[in-house]
Amino acid sequence: MFCKITKKKIKPFMSFGKMPIANGFLKSKNFKKEFFFNMEVGFSKDLSLFQLNDHPKPKMMFNNNYPFFTGSSKIMVSHFKNYADWIKKKIIKNKINKKKINLIEIGSNDGTFLKNFKNHKFNILGIEPSTNVAKISKKLKINTKNIFFSYKNSKKFKNFKKKTDIICAANVICHIPDLIDLIKGVDNLLDKKGLFIFEEPYLGSMYKKVSYDQIYDEHIYMFSVNSIKKIFSLNGFDLINAIPQITHGGSMRYIVGRKNEHEIDKNIPKLLLQEKKNNIDSFKGCIDFKKKCENSKKKLKKTIKNLLAKGKSIAGYAATSKSTTILNYCGINKKHINYICDTTPNKIGLYTPGTHIPIVSVDYFRKHICDYTFLFAWNHKKEIFNKEKKFLKKTKWFAHIKL
Ligand code: JHZ
Known about the structure:
- By secondary structure, this protein is of the alpha/beta class.
- It has helices at about 60, 75-90, 130-140, 150-155, 180-190, 205-210, 225-235, 265-275, 285-310, 320-330, 360-365, 380-385; strands at about 15-20, 35-45, 50, 100-105, 120-125, 145, 165-170, 190-200, 220, 235-245, 250-260, 315, 340, 360, 370-375, 395-400.
- Strands 6-5-4-7-8-11-10 form a 7-stranded mixed beta sheet.
- α5 links the parallel β7 and β8 (about 190-200).
- The structure holds ligand JHZ.
C-alpha cells in the first residue's frame, strides 16, 4: 500500500477482512449484489498518519441515499449549537466591525450546524455531496451546494475567494481521500487571517478505548495532533490549537491558519508530548492496538456464543456506521442478533450491510425486549439511556467496549 499523501510505500499492519459499505443498509433483494472491499490499515511513519489502504469510490458512499443525519442526536444538535456559539464568541470577536462574516461548512449534512449562523451577520455556504441530506438543509433556506468539496469546485465560489473568515467541518475531513487537494481548496477560499476549524474522531481516544469500530470505509484517516500538524505545515499552514471534545467517543477540534499569521497555543506542545508518551505518533501504537482489537474480537465472539448457548436472546440498539465494522469483523449476523432498532426512518425495514440483520423501529425494541442488548451507539449512551429509562433494567446492556 502507498501513503495517500507522501505516495511512499507502507506496509498494512492489520486487516479487518472483507467489509461492505458501512452505511450501505439494504433491501433483501440486493443481498447478492453487495459490494465488499478488503479493509486494511497502515501507518505512514513520516506523517504519523493512520490510514485505510483501499476504500470505495466517494460516490458509492455519499449519494442520494446517505442515511446519516446529523440531527438524529439531540446531544449532537446541542453540541453544534455550542460549537457555533464558541465560534461567535472566541473566534469572531476581533472581526466585530466587519459588515459580514463569510463562513463555509464542508460537509454540511442536514444544516444542523449552519442553521446557528442564519442571521444578518453571516454569509454562509454549505457544501454537501449527498443529495438527500443537502435537500433538508436547502429547505431550511441555508445556501447549500450539492457537490463534493475540491480545489476545482472551490473555484466556483467566487464571492468567497480569499475572503472566507472561517471554514468549518465536523466529521468530514477524514472522509476526504486527497487531503492535498482539500488544502488547496481551503487555500483558495481562506482570507489571509482566516481560520480552518474542524473536528474529527481522535486516534488517541480510539487507541485508549479500543473502539476499532471508528474504522470503516468513510473514515479514510484517523487523525492525531501530530499528523495534522505535519500535513498542514508541509502545505503552508500552521496548526494553531487543538481542543479535545467528548463527542463520538473522543474527538479533537483542530484550528489551522496560514503560516506565521497566528500565535501557536500552548496546548499544541502539550498534546504532542502526550501523544509521544502514549505511542500515538509511532508504529508501536499500531501494533499494540492490533493486539487489543484481536483480543476484543475473541472476547466478544465468546460472550455471544455463551449467551446463545444459554438460550439468551440478543438485540442491537442503533444501526450505526460503526456497527458494520463490529458485525463484519467479528462474524456476527442474523443468527446471533435478532434485530437492531434505530430512529432513522430511512434505515427501518432494511438490513445491515454484509450481515443482514433486520433494522426495526425503537417501538419494536420496546415491545420485543431481548435478554441482552448490544448498544452500537455507545457514544450516545447518555442520550439513549435517558430515553430508555423504563427499559434499562429489562435487558442487560453491553458493547464491545466498556459501557
Ligand atoms: P452515530 C456517522 O457515524 C457517520 P455513526 C459519519 N461517517 C461520521 O463520521 C459520524 O457519524 C460522525 C441512531 N440513533 O451518531 C441514529 C438511535 O437510534 O454514532 C443513527 O442511525 N437513537 C458521518 O452512524 C445512528 O444511531 C438515538 O437516540 O456511527 C447514528 O449513530 C441516537 C442518538 C442515535 O454515528
